[in-house]
Amino acid sequence: AVMHLARYARSVTMLVLEDDIAERMSQYLVERIRRTPNVHVRTGHTVSEARGQGRLEEITIQDVKTEETETVLANALFVFIGAAPQTEWLEGTVERDEQGFILHGPRLPREDGRPRGWKPRRDPLLLETNVPGIFVAGDVRAGSVKRVASAVGEGAMAVQLIHEYLNEGEE
Fold it and tell me: Is 45 helix (H, G, I), strand (E, B) or coil?
């Protein structure tokens, strides 16, 4: 997103919670960002406030360690919420891994060769969770590659698998 915005904006400031952008990014992207003259990276910072009259005019940036703040002019703000799956609300319903990513098909824990607690006579479909008829696609899926194109493809696959699941009752 930063590289895309840098094509149109005079200046793009990227705030990163971590101490180094390389902690969560591929090396080729880190290098591209560092070579782009209108992109400025501020590690260990976050937005603590946004203000304006009818449109965004300024934001307050906070150092996550010292809690010092700085208010800067801003015409736009793009928020990338991160890669944490935010699936806590599924606790007790859908199986998740230690990081909270949703388990599915071949990734489901098994007992005696069958997914734990699985009632149907068939195995779960590829993107089907431990709950028959609930499918997962995109970044929240355990083992996903965290790319938009992959998420779109998985979404299309999920639609096909849902049709297969729904037709199952007709046979």
Answer: strand
